[in-house]
Amino acid sequence: QGGRRTLPKAGQQLSFEEIGGQERAKQELIEALDFLVKPDEIMKFGIRPLKGILLTGPPGTGKTLLAKAAAQYTNSIYVAASGSEFVEMYVGVGAGRIRDLFKEARQKATKAGKSSAVIFIDEIDVIGGKRDGGQHREYDQTLNQLLTEMDGIYTTDSPRILLIAATNRKEMLDSALIRPGRFDRHIQVDLPDKKGRRHILDIHAKNKPLDEDVSLERIAEESFGFSGAQLESVMNEAAIYAMRDDNENVMQQHLSMAIDKVMMGEKTDREATK
Ligand code: ATP
């Protein structure tokens, strides 16, 4: 099959078509992006500009993929960071890193001749957690710096910044972050339903030799409750089983064994953290 291709690695281009399921999340994100890339119309209608998009949902459901696809869709540079990178013992370091992140995004966009940059901050709850009256002064400064940068998004000259953040603990976020004028567009990224799981399995099967008797539909049924990341693991583990068996192709039994393995792996992880 000439059409086989693998999913692009981090930093490479990725389109919405390469994200399985998540139809509603994709649609909501595209709507928000269309809105963001038309600042003139927003001005004309006197609409309050959108500062940031918050993706919420369980781990491994494709939030990072959505942010990357948003960068490709808007022809932007993509810059990513994780909330935990801003946690430092020394006061002011985290805030400085936030400043640098925005600076880096603008510089990279300029260098690449692009008019916008997507900044993706994963685990935003680490810096944007509820402020508790002075216990974590350093976190406060970091969060304040992020709020300052967000306020400057529309006042600073181009390139424009499209800020996307992700969390699986939305209830932990400080109200200053989620009030109107900040991250005021929230998009829920849920575990995939059966149709979504099938779509994700199809995407990750593209670069694998599957036996003609394999039914990915059945695997989609059997993998109830799995995230996209777990489904990717299922395809990968199945290919490892096939290789160990000296099989030319991945068979149905390899996929069933892989489902058990991924499920067991999760259990073992949970038991270990008890
Ligand atoms: P976390 O909250 O842990 O950061 P996330 O929601 O950002 O997770 P991703 O990093 O986007 O999850 O997904 C991890 C990997 O799982 C992807 O690189 C991809 O291989 C696979 N994956 C997850 N969701 C999907 C999906 N909807 N379609 C295709 N692959 C997916």
UniProtKB/TrEMBL annotation:
Its cofactor is Zn(2+). The keyword Protease applies. Keywords: ATP-binding, Coiled coil, Hydrolase, Membrane, Metal-binding, Metalloprotease, Nucleotide-binding, Protease, Transmembrane, Transmembrane helix, Zinc. Residues 49-193 form the AAA+ ATPase domain. One of its GO terms (biological process) is proteolysis. The keyword GTP-binding does not apply. GO terms for molecular function: ATP binding; ATP hydrolysis activity; ATP-dependent peptidase activity; metal ion binding; metalloendopeptidase activity. Belongs to the AAA ATPase family. In the C-terminal section; belongs to the peptidase M41 family. This is AAA family ATPase. It comes from Paenibacillus roseus. The lineage of its organism: Bacteria, Bacillati, Bacillota, Bacilli, Bacillales. The chain holds residues 54 to 327 of 502 of the full protein.
